[in-house]
Amino acid sequence: MYMIMLVLDDADYLDDVLEAWSNLGISGATIIESSGLHRRHPKRIPMRYTYGESTGDEEGNLTLFVIVADEKTSRDCLEAVEKIVGNLDDPNTGVFAAWPLTITKGVPFANGKG
């Protein structure tokens, strides 16, 4: 089994990503509102230049966690995401990571129940 983490830069893509993953057989995901380091640090602009402009109250990201059965499914999920948001190597798209799991519990397909 593999854990997938997707940091989605634009929350408007969430429903499309979830639908694409659902079409791949993914039946559950954990979704967390998150923020990256670049959004945490205040902008270093003198106040006299920021009148009427945003000063760091930007929206955050959404981070999704999903457990899938195998590496192929992980790669299929990545491909589905990039069809929606574009190449994740481009700025302001997101971050995708997947890694193998050695222990799981509470995952229905992990023990033959799903």
What is the strand and helix layout of this fold?
Blueprint: E1 2-8, H1 14-23, E2 30-34, H2 37-40, E3 61-68, H3 71-85, E4 94-100
Antiparallel strand pairs: 1-3, 1-4, 2-3
Helix pairs in contact: 1-3
Major sheet details: 4 strands, antiparallel
Strand content: 15-25%
- How many structural domains are formed by the residues? 1
Q: Which sequence of SSEs, written as H and E, runs from N to C?
A: EHEHEHE
User: Globular, elongated, flat, extended or rod-shaped: what is the shape?
Assistant: globular
Arithmetic mean pLDDT: 84
Helix content: 25-40%
- State the name of the first-level CATH class: Alpha Beta
Tell me how many strands there are: 4
CATH architecture: 2-Layer Sandwich
Distance between the termini: 14 Å
Note poorly predicted spans.
49-57
> Which fold does the CATH topology refer to?
Alpha-Beta Plaits
Count every helix, treating DSSP H or I runs of 4 or more residues as helices.
Answer: 3
Widest sheet, order of strands: 2-3-1-4
Provide the gyration radius in Å: 17 Å
Which structural category fits the helices and strands? alpha+beta
